[in-house]
Amino acid sequence: MVPSHTRTLGRVIVAGTLILLLIPTFWMRAAPTQAQARLPVSMAAAGDSLTSAVGSGPRYFADNTAYSWATGASPEVNSLALRLATRNPALSGNVYNLARIGARMGDLPAQMSTVNAIKAEYVAVLMGGNDACAATEAAMTPVETFRQQFDTALARLAEGSPGARVLVLSIPDPTRLVPLFRDNRSAVAIWTLFDVCPTALARPRSDAPEDGARRERVRQRVAEYNQQIAEVCARYPQCRYDGGAVFTMRLEAADISPYDYFHLSARGQARLAEVAWAVAGF
What residues contact residue 12 under an 8 Å CB cut-off, 6+ apart? Predict the structure, then answer.
């Protein structure tokens, strides 16, 4: 016969084991489900020619905003705005593209002032490519200046539109175009004739050490710009960064415009829209 104190101890052990087994289940059930981000009813895009979709549509060397990754209405691109409007029809008619050809990070604060004026609830930003694509390496925007300009832009948005959310994409790496088109005579001729992003694309067929080192310095500068974007964005609760997704995006020849072999084609804009949607949090 089992002593009573032994039976009591056995019950305690069994009860304690059940409690330990039930605790994880309780916490899993009790943990709140993270709410999905509320869909906006108005949206603006800020940036440069990549966001105004130069080279992506029928207008030669001009804006083709219907094909913009951010705000375009073309089903071929299936932009961020189009995906949002499909889920929230109230967004339709309240989408604004503020991007300008040749804009640099120093132009972003003014674009954010316009965002405040139109009271956009959601802002998509891709800016900084022209800061690296300067006439010379010396003319590239200094990293600290770039950071200050971006911080000023986000501070202006936070002050004028405290409820607005912002998605910031990383700057793409322009040196990725060299291996894609260095053997393409048309591309090399256009890059040379029109002085397209000379810091990255000058003498694309050269394997000389100095040209390779120059391209690597430009790539590093873009990486440093993206680091500043990440750090500044993290200081603002309403800001979301893509984690470098665009910077590391693998491009194919069909993603690039045949007009200048630099801007994105409609297919490239569609791929950019897909990346943006994947990181947007909706």
Answer: none
Domain count, the chain: 1
Concatenating the DSSP letter of every residue in 139-203 gives GSPPHHHHHHHHHHHHHHHHHH-TT-EEEEPPPP-GGGHHHHHTT-HHHHHHHHHTT-SHHHHSS
Q: What does the alpha-carbon distance between residue 200 and residue 187 come to, in Å, rounded to a whole number?
A: 14
Question: Cα 264 from chain centroid?
Answer: 15
Q: Please check whether residue 70 is in contact with residue 49, taking contact to mean a CB–CB distance below 8 angstroms.
A: no
Q: d(Cα 247, Cα 136) in Å, to the nearest integer?
A: 21
In the prediction, which pLDDT does 206 show? 97
Q: What angle do CA 278, 222, 116 make, to 5 degrees?
A: 60
Q: In this predicted structure, what is the pLDDT of residue 133?
A: 98
Residue 20 lies inside a defined structural domain of this protein: no
Report if residue 31 sits inside a domain.
no
Look up the pTM and report it: 0.86
Helix (H, G, I), strand (E, B) or coil at 227: helix
